[in-house]
Amino acid sequence: MSSLLKPFSVTDGPCESSGLRQKCSTVPASHSQSLTCNPSQHVGTPTVVDASRSSPIYQSYSARRTLAAASIGGRKITHPGKAILAGGIAGGIEICITFPTEYVKTQLQLDERANPPRYRGIGDCVKLTVQDHGLRGLYRGLSSLLYGSIPKSAVRFGTFEVLANPMRDATGRLDNTRSLWCGLGAGIAEAIIVVCPMETLKVKMIHDQCSLQPRYRGFFHGVREIIRDQGVRGTYQGLTATVLKQGSNQAIRFYVMNSLRNWYKGDDPHCEMHPIVTAMFGATAGAASVFGNTPLDVVKTRMQGLEAHRYTSTVDCAFKILKNEGPQAFYKGTVPRLGRVCLDVAIVFVLYEEVVKLLNNAWKTE
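and the corresponding structure tokens:
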């Protein structure tokens, strides 16, 4: 299957079939028994009698038809089950690589200006964390995010494919505007099902480390204590902000990624993108989402922290941040988040595409 997915030029793909159609219509009478056109079949599909099945023209055309069908069926239209599995695998690997930057971003956002700031910047945050807790301190809270990252990516890509597949055209191309709405739906689904409870646990555990006497000894102990103190509702703090953040996040990312993909492929729907190109487009999509919704990320983080009781709602949280800290506070942690998200989105899209290709070999679907 991998050999079928290798890139090929426009002249080797559907464009050449049009040339064959012209030859078909002007075939000499002396060759009419070898290659004829059947009007009852699809336009451009030649009917070849048994005597000519061994001819080079027929074998070449048949091979290219098979290649095009494999490209559309296995690459452009992804089975939701494959999307869920590939998304989960990609999400798990990605978070193990990028978590330290997520940790630093969260610490800087929690370091409110109303209190004497503890950190002077990214480097100072990393330095103090390593001094106090060692290198393992940069991975505090990884378990909660890892347990959430796998199902989060699975839900995201699974939902996106479920919404996008019916909207694709005959070549598997998805319109840019439709990709925006599909991404929005995927982001809302992952926010409600996975992101909100897992992000709440992550933020509370990271915030707990800032206190002089940390309460939580690990992920499961932290979950048990939070639910005992605040109930299940305690894991859904900041749901509105999370839905707004994740919905806009995925809408921007899938829109930018799909737009760049359509631009790169142009009129050749079978053009394969190299993983490096996929990574570059993914990083661009990630950067666009950071600048587009970092204020929502700041509000979400505050609503999920240990001092969330200070805010009565998402709007109240945003108003108090603006009043007490100024508009620049909405972009706290932008630099570390930019680095993490660009790397995150690039890795996830590359891994997702490659895992889907592997699954196409092992899991045959219609």
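(Above: one complete record from the training split.) The beta strands are 36-37, 46-47.
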